[in-house]
Amino acid sequence: MKKLTHLILIALTIISCSTEETLTPSTNFNADEFKKSEEANKIAEEVNSIITKDYEEDANNKSASMSVPYLPDCVTRTYTTNGTTHEVEFDFGTIGCTMPNGNVITGKIHYSYTGDLTAETKTITYTLINFTFNSIDVEGSDEIYHIRNNTNGNPQSTIVVDFTLTWPSGLVGYRTGSIIREWIEGSDTLLDWTDDVFSISGNWTTTFDNGSSYSATIATNLRRELSCWYFVSGSINFNYNGLLFTGDYGDGACDNNATLTFQNGNTINILL
Hints:
Layout lengths: L1 H16 L13 H31 L14 E6 L3 E7 L5 E2 L5 E11 L6 E13 L2 E12 L8 E11 L5 E14 L11 E12 L4 E13 L5 E10 L2 E9 L5 E6 L4 E5 L1
Antiparallel strand pairs: 1-2, 2-4, 3-4, 4-5, 5-6, 6-7, 7-8, 8-9, 9-10, 10-11, 11-12, 12-13, 13-14
């Protein structure tokens, strides 16, 4: 990462010397903070994928006891209900449970909802308990408004995001926003993660305790394939401490490459 940051700083210096419109010191791009903002995206995506997939599968089977073949054996699922309120808790343990896409999780996700399990719409509330994601501590208690069939006939979730993240370095970030995730492929094969694809829109802000802030609005819907760590296509408009730029996430290939284009026309490639 140090090498990547160094190369980016060199690239920005070269660019600034070749154009009259330069990036001022007060708005310099920080590659490390950009990467951390992207990590917050992955966390929100993983948590909500686990919850919505589980909710759809449980509703499909209509059972109070369900195995989780789409999750590794290190995850324990507990379901309780009084007939009206339904609660599910995933326990990932304390050592580190590796997910199918390689992310490592500890702690618990607890979610609940009320009423008929097979209802067309449902508000799901969830809480993260002693939760870590790739060694990042994550705290949050949020809501998901879930539609079983949207106008395209696909499951769709609107997620209210409100996370606090603490990285091993001690940096703290606060993520708030609203995200819409349409499940465009794989919802008919609930026990298989590998074919799940989501189209994502929305906006969010990541504010760090050092005063830096990333605001983001999805310009072209992001494509998330659960078999991949990264967004494989789509674009986001960013505002980083007043510095405006657009991130392009590619043409569909599963890789960690993104292209950032700044308002003055400067373009850099970055590894996420």
